Amino acid sequence: MYMLRKVLGIVCACILAAGLTVGCGATGKSSESADTGGAQENAAVISEAAETQKDTVQSEKSGDSSSEEASSQENNSVMSRKAEGQTIVVWGWDLPEFNKKIEDYVKEASGVTVNGQTMAREDEVSKLTVAAATGNGLPDGFKLGNEDIPRLVAQNAIRDITDLVEPYKDCLPQVAWDMVTYEGKIWGIPANSPAGGMFYRYDVLEKYGINPEELTTWDKWLEAGKKVVEESNGEVMWFNAPKNKVGVPLDMTIFQQYGAQILNSDHKVAINSQNYKDALSLLQEIRDAKISAPIDDWSAPWYQSMKDGTVACYGNGTWFVQTLIQQAPDTLGKWYFTPFPAVEEGGDRYPNFGSTACFISSQTKNVDAAFEWCKAWTLDEKGSLEIGLKELGVSVVSNAALENEYVNQPHEFFAKDQAYWKLATQAFSNSTYVPPFFADSSEADSIWQRYYEQWWLGKMDADTALSSAEEEIKTKLKLE
What keywords sit in the KW lines (predicted)? Predict the structure, then answer.
């Protein structure tokens, strides 16, 4: 799966009491689970304007377990000192300065020393594969995508953590756990948001008499784009797209909305379907409308378009706000966020782009210490909210987040007093779809991308592209 560069945190306040079910949230009550997902983090993008939280955790080591639990309740924290004094090694692709804030907090709150090692994703995958095959050399914990789980399980590289996370199940929407569940077991904890939406230049839309709240379907979205491009004489384009395809956030959203799958939940090749043909038909309408600027993501022209308003709409993950803050700091109050348009009025608007997850390796002897690291990123209130959201700009996904004052306050980069973090949280909690994933899903997707590109460039019709991809996937992967 194509990995989107994104950062996000998951906020959950869980109160642990002996003999009782763990509850999540500032009130101490369990929140009801809400249904709702290429998740590579944009670790370099950190908001300089983010508010820094200076509170310290007062949990102290005590021989009396009841006093430790009382301290945990008082501080609304799920961190414990069960593994105090242990040192663990963790791997990931985030920059060291990004990781350090959480690693320091793990030391403060649990007494566990975290030695983080940063490497490219490809290098991490290679090292994990070798270490798993030889039976030694795995770190205590690491981050990879949730779509990597089938391969990691097949390699015996990760630990089943179903029992470990059971007390914290109410902290996250059920869809979060569904994303890291494989063969009936939970293997990781989501560490960033799989959600996304449309980021509009509100001032540009206002100039052309367009209300972003009314762009609830792709038909309406297309008409608005044509209006902007026509009335601006092409000086403002509706969205950006690489020359060889529409771009992952838009096409992945549309494929999911149509239920178009390369491999279905029965692990059978399902690409040559009416679902895919219908999705490609809509994508062809978008292509033929000629309302996109031929600009690649992460390029200098892409950043410039955010600053000068020459592109009116960006479909992306909820992490994209940090790119705006970093790259277009003078655009305060000029943005507006909505869910993606639906195929039909009232249809699904909440895609799942996949998520980075925290894993505990199968070889570690420091399971409790590694779990403290996982909790700090995702389940602990201070780690995920005070540090993850406020300091690192990591989007929130927990059941308790919507009750938080910071999440519900207006964001300075958005017009009409939009509470962006609230909307970003809802974009996840309203999602229900989790794409099926298997050990060979990535290879199947790579095969399809070649034919998809040929179709997008007009070198192959939809029927030929789909049937050719189907045949090659079946042959190479030996699937039905």
Answer: Cell membrane, Lipoprotein, Membrane, Palmitate, Signal
Residue 155 lies in a domain: yes
Q: Where are the extended beta strands (E) located within 310-392?
A: 313-317, 335-338, 356-360
Q: What is the sign, positive or negative, of the torsion defined by CA atoms of 438, 439, 445, 447?
A: negative
**159 and 11, same domain (yes or no):** yes
pLDDT band at 75 (very low <50, low <70, confident <90, very high): low
Q: Quote the CA–CA distance of 309 and 349 in Å, as a whole number.
A: 25
Cα gap 475→470, rounded to integer Å = 9
What is the distance of C-alpha 241 from the center of its chain? Answer: 21
Closest CA to 127 of 142, 112, 149: 142
User: Can you give the length of the chain in residues?
Assistant: 480
* pLDDT band (50, 70, 90) for residue 16: very low
Position 181 in a domain: yes
Distances in Å between the alpha carbon of 419 and those of 2, 28, 46, 119, 236?
29, 24, 19, 35, 27
pLDDT tens digits, one per residue of 236-278: 999 999 887 777 899 999 999 999 999 999 999 999 999 999 9
Q: How many domains does the chain contain in total?
A: 2
Q: What is the pLDDT of residue 98?
A: 92
Q: What range does the domain containing 306 cover? A: 196-351+439-477
Mean pLDDT computed over every residue of the chain: 86
Exposure of 84 by Cβ count < 10 A (0-12 exposed, 13-18 middle, 19+ buried)? middle
Question: How confident is the model over 428-449, as pLDDT tens digits?
Answer: 989 988 999 999 999 999 999 9
Give, in order, the Cα–Cα distances in Å from 423 to each of 195, 239, 426.
10, 21, 5
In a domain, 434, yes or no: no
* Residues 175 and 67 reside in one and the same domain: yes
pLDDT exceeds 60 at position 288: yes
Does the structure show a pLDDT above 60 at 39?
A: no
> CA 315, CA 239: separation in Å to the nearest integer?
8
* DSSP letter string, 84-110: TT-EEEEEESS-HHHHHHHHHHHHHHH
Instruction: Give the residue from 308, 311, 310, 334 showing the smallest Cα distance to 321.
Output: 334
Assign residue 37 the CATH number of its domain: 3.40.190.10
Rounded to an integer, what distance in angstroms lies between the CA atom of residue 350 and that of residue 37? Answer: 9
Crossing angle of helices 274-288 and 248-257, rounded to 10°:
140
Model's pTM, two decimal places?
Answer: 0.84
Cα separation, 322 vs 393, in Å, equals 6
